[in-house]
């Protein structure tokens, strides 16, 4: 006698071997904040974006190894470096087995994983991210290009110089306006929005931009420079590599 269809189906289900899910490839990101081998920063002392990441680690009081990348010798375009940073730029940060690039993205990663200098509320988090995007769009590019020209690393004529100068000053005016309302750019406490902007604004004099007309920025700079763990690029990014 043929078995009722329902019973057959039940047996088939019972016999079915459990499907073993393939082990997922995992990328190890260390979490212990005391792990001094966790981070290695690849950078250059004169690089604003490298300083951004070094300053963040330093303000977080987290030790890190440092590898000096010699841009003059083109080390940042060699295959062994391009596997760390596909864009062929400094900085690159190793966190455990993971390589991170783009200073703003690295700031976000560090603030989230170390729970420091992040936005404390959902609104603050959105504001912090907003400032990081704005900063690279409007502040960093003109200011760093002017600085590079002044240091002889980039050549462009006076018309372009005037354009970048106007753009950089317009960006500084936006920060100045914001700091008239609150001590910190995006939150009630310092966040990565402050660290990211500070690490670029500090180069204004090297871009031939006088900060005297920006009293709120000048006071904010001093507040950041008084924070525990603060260091200058020369203190944080030595010319030689430093392995922990
Ligand atoms: N948006 C990038 C900018 C990085 C960048 O411009 N790095 C410069 C040094 S300051 C560099 O590596 N320049 C060499 C090149 O682009 O070939 C970041 O924030 O990490």
Helix and strand arrangement:
Layout: H1 5-15, E1 39-43, H2 48-59, E2 65-68, H3 79-82, E3 92-95, E4 98-101, H4 103-114, H5 122-150, H6 158-181, H7 192-201, H8 215-225, H9 233-236
Parallel strand pairs: 1-2
Antiparallel strand pairs: 1-3, 3-4
This protein binds glutathione.
Glutathione binds next to helix 2 and helix 4.
Alpha carbon gyration radius: 24 Å
What is the number of E strands? 4
Q: Indicate the proportion of strand residues.
A: 5-15%
Q: What's the order of the H and E elements? A: HEHEHEEHHHHHH
Please give the count of helices: 9
**Which residues form runs of ≥5 with pLDDT under 50?**
1-19
Structural class: alpha+beta
For the largest beta-sheet, the strand count, sense and barrel status come to:
4 strands, mixed
- Arithmetic mean pLDDT: 90
CATH class of the largest domain: Mainly Alpha
CATH topology of the largest domain: Glutathione S-transferase Yfyf (Class Pi), Chain A, domain 2
Architecture of the largest domain in CATH? Up-down Bundle
